[in-house]
Structures are given as C-alpha cells and as structure tokens.
Design goal:
Length: about 180
C-alpha cells in the first residue's frame, strides 16, 4: 500500500509537507515576483490602439494596388466604389495613404457582389468592403516609401529616375499621386 503522503497525482508525487521557515524579506520578494506578471497582464491591453475607420481618414486618399495601379478617392463614398478588375486582380492588400500621410492597408478587399455578378459586369464598378488596418509606420517618409515602391512596379517608364527624384522632394499627396499614376 502507498503511504498517503506519496500519492501520485497527474504524474507528480505529493511529498509530506514540511514546515518552512522564511524570512520576511523572502516573502516580500516572492510577492514582487508574483505581482509583476499580474500587473503586466492588466496593463497589456492599454497599449492597443483602435483600428482606423473610414470616417477617421483625411480625404482625399490615394490607394496603391500591387498591380501598378493607383487610384485617388475624394471621399468615403467614393472609396467604397471600385473598378471590378482592380478588385479581382488585387494580389495583395492595397496600401492607402490619406492627406495627412496616415498609411493603412485595405485587408480583405472584396466586392459585395458574388462571382456571377462580377462575371456579368467585368468592366463595371462595384461596391467594396474591406478591413482598414494601420501600417506600422505612417508619416511623410512612409508615404514616400509606399509611392516609391509603387513607382518601381512601373517598369515601362523611361523616366523612372527623374520621377523618383521628384518623389523624394514631394510634400503633398497630390504631387506623389501625379508622379505615380499611370498616364500611358
């Protein structure tokens, strides 16, 4: 028979409890060590920011699609309507830059219509939905970097070096958009 002091519980043996004498300093250290993780869990939720909303954007905005396509949207209603082909052919989440250089991504960009409707209207405009997510970095330099990457996709241009140089000096969203938009 197994003594009561050595009964296995979930592969752990409980050994007879021995009275333990500890100093007051040892108890205080244990309280601090236990208290730190509890406090960090409480305050971990405070640092999270709310995702941006369409209403919080400063219009006009530019949307940079991965297929060397850039569109300018003047207001929230305009942003919710996009060309069917752009929505269908978007390989990765488009990047949105607003007038104050807040950079976001349009995650889960999709049409509100089903496949048959999209098939019947291949050159039309469709209402879209998306999840707006703030990029890690925003500001003028981040916006320039996004536009420079988009310009790099436009390999057919003969004047890429001049456009990149002008883009580095651009200070408004409209200037950046004009340098990157497809005009050919």
């Amino acid at each position: 028979m197994i003594p009561a002091s050595r009964i296995p519980v979930r592969n752990i043996c409980i050994v007879e409890a021995q009275p333990c004498e500890q100093s007051a300093a040892g108890m205080n250290i244990r309280k601090v060590i236990v208290g730190i993780p509890i406090l960090s869990m409480l305050f971990a939720g405070c640092s999270r920011t709310k995702p941006p909303t369409v209403e919080s954007l400063h219009f006009p905005v530019a949307v940079l699609f991965s297929n060397a396509c850039t569109n300018f949207f003047t207001d929230a209603d305009d942003l919710k309507m996009m060309n069917v082909q752009i929505v269908i052919n978007s390989a990765s989440p488009p990047i949105l830059v607003d007038s104050e250089f807040a950079v976001c991504t349009l995650n889960k960009l999709r049409s509100i219509h089903g496949g048959f409707w999209l098939f019947a209207h291949p050159s039309g405009v469709t209402e879209v939905t998306f999840d707006l997510a703030a990029a890690r970095n925003s500001g003028l330099d981040s916006a320039r970097a996004a536009f420079t990457a988009e310009l790099g996709e436009e390999t057919w241009r003969d004047d890429l070096a001049q456009r990149r140089e002008k883009l580095e000096k651009s200070t408004t969203l409209q200037e950046m958009f004009d340098l990157v938009k497809s005009d050919e």
